[in-house]
Write a structure and sequence with these properties.
The chain is mainly alpha-helical. It contains 19 helices and 5 strands.
Amino acid sequence: MDDLLLSSLPKIHLKKTHVLSQVFNCTTNSYKLFWMMAILNHLSENSEPEILIEDLLVEMVSLAWHPVLLFHLSLGHQDMLQSAVLKVQQSSELQPNSTRTETKSLISGHLSVASQIISLGNYVPYRFLSPWFSKELLRIPDHKKNAIIEGLSLNSQKTNEPSPYFFPQSNIIQLNPSWASFFQENLGVISAFVKYHTVCYLQRGNPNTPNVVSKLEVPAKRDLSTVRRFWYSVKDEFISQGKGDWFRDIFSGMTLPAHYAIDHFCPWSFVVHDQIWNLVPIEQSVNSSKGDRLPDIKYYLPRMARLHIQSLKVIKRFPSLEEEFIECYRKSPSELAQSGEDTFCKRMWDVFFPLFTVAQNQGFQAGWRYETNRHA
């Protein structure tokens, strides 16, 4: 990705590109990444060079909201931004799937919540600039660095290698004109560069987690129309065989009504995809009860295996879904059907058990049963 950035920008910007690469090539905390994303987001909407530090900190928390709370990703055991996100959530009524607009509105409008991010402001804006002044800051005690960085960043504006911003006031940063132009003229490429490094950082801290690249933000649009047509066809096939009672909710055992939901057996907020091998039809109220909890895998996986193996004849009519089955189980639907229900269930276990183990380790609640959570 660094090579792509270097080759896609004009030669005049190579020095800026190089120093940014150095900043993100040695990332031990998430704040650099989310601070830079916050600045870029500001510039995508506003060309004003002076930015309130509080606004950027609120943006940082909103950017980290879904990765931390909805997708259960770790930013680091002692990460300051993760701690701020958790404290804001604990002191508010915001849900993990709240939008970034809702998150920013609540933080900005409630001083008691906003206070949770003040400690970030005492650290992040200054430490981000440390690579520009690494020699000057050598052997300087940590408690003296803020004042020194303030002075160094201001003085650097008169040189040929200015820092990206300085502090005209204690609560404001002002972007250097050449850096602001660089960011704005190359916003798409630099945003992709920062997101790439953010994904790399998150993957290191969450090594067994699937689809980290899709967990920086909630997808704007999802399409389950093909999946719904598939399950409608399965129901029709069962009825044509005189076995309509096969089309049941695997969790409650209830015969499914005409209108039902589609459930991710392993929660969507963990896998972040809508592939058929992880989906089952479910009664609406049962779906609400289950939420993003992990079902009791020993109890429910055999039921899911039974429903899926009975539906394999229909899946041939849906090539894209059939391909998802093949990619998951490395066998064709006909081979899976011929293997028998017990063998198919064991194959499913080999797929789902590792996923459930990692999800539980990340904080997803495990062992959910409908019978014991009827009023959850």
